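Hi team,

As requested, here is the filled-out complex form for the KE4 run. I kept the field names the same as last time so the parser does not choke. Let me know if anything looks off before we queue the next batch.

— J.
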Amino acid sequence: MSTNASLFERAQRSIPGGVNSPVRAFRAVGGTPRFITRAQGAYIWDAEGQQYIDYIGSWGPMIVGHGHPAVLEAVQKAVVDGFSFGAPTEREIELAEEILKLVPSAEQVRLVSSGTEAGMSAIRLARGYTGRSKLIKFEGCYHGHADALLVKAGSGLATFGHPTSAGVPPEVVQHTIVLEYNNVEQLEQAFSEHGHHLACVMIEAIAGNMNFVRASVPFMKRLRELCTEYGALLVFDEVMTGFRVALGGAQSLFAQWIPGFKPDLSVFGKVIGGGMPLAAFAGPTEIMAQLAPLGPVYQAGTLSGNPVATACGLATLKLIQQPGFFESLSQRTGALISGLTDAARTAGIPLCGDHLGGMFGFFFADQLPQNYAAVMAHGSTRFNRFFHEMLDRGVYLAPAMYEAGFVSAAHTDKDISQTIDAAKQAFAAL
Ligand code: KE4
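And here is what came back:
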């Protein structure tokens, strides 16, 4: 039987770093990545037969748990009818209608195959619609690896300590302004200097790419006001938070905290594909009408709206609308976070955490960081050791302190208490 180590050694011969996405290589936490053979419910198994309680869930998509029978049935039925046509299908309409039902800020949606593609296209649309070039993003937020956005990204890049990526010519990022998250003064300054040249501001309203940092209500309120005042589009990157922190995503929470709040464009991914390659961007018809084939903003994709992926996504979106789905998911995620913080306190280790819906984060710190620099200040030594202590006890957390964690509907109270017991032992080992 192949071991994780022998598979990793072999993988590195044919795949750069042995992985198809950097964070999977465990370089932030050290050690050997686990080669997963199968998953079911809240669990995954590696090549050595070791079972783990899975708190990554494919980095967000698996919100109903791995291999949910209703999703499996929908995919099996769809695949028999055809893998891909490159032509329109009714199911794309059904998925679009389902997304728009849950996202009142949008009237139309375009389906694509990855969050990166969705974010990149949303920016091109914003630039085409406004006729402007500049954009603002925030340090610690990650919006996929499109060139213009790969500036001080908060995901994998932060782990590697490269504030920008090689291979991105300076002229490509000359229009990208990077501000400090939750910093109103910088926002005011940037808008007064560049406001009339700004096509859009892109933000993770709950920043899962610096673990779990909330945009403050005053900050988001001011951001919305400034975008409206200067005619820049506010683009909510909900690839991670969409249908995850709440049924209506982060924007539905900010609409509760700021009366009448809504973004101009939204970017989705992960949950809407249920684990298959599917993402989307959405907005008012007036803006979306700029897109080809109607308007001058080009955007396309061979597998966009893929019939198997749309079946997987649609089945997932139906399941998360079941009564009480988010209430019980949020309750379980909350129990995890309070259990971890209680266990750490008992062990005399500073730990704080936060959660919304089925997304959580925790920091080895006394208080929740409000921006990227504060997240960085705590270093990763303690997290990395905790990560391995938990992994050795069959609990699979995100292999980087900059990543958020995810609970699925398949995680039981027993899984949560088992995780907390493992944490008690892990904290004692620390
Ligand atoms: P993808 O291109 O990876 O589908 O989506 C990019 C993306 C866009 N926006 C947000 C808010 C995201 O979190 C992501 C991708 N998230 C990472 C995890 N931090 C995916 C994991 C990985 O890169 O392997």
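Two things worth flagging: The pocket of KE4 is lined by residues 21, 23, 59, 114-116, 119, 142-144, 155-156, 204, 208-209, 237, 239-240, 269, 279, 403 (CB under 6 Å). Residues 325-346 form the longest helix (22 residues).

Thanks,
J.
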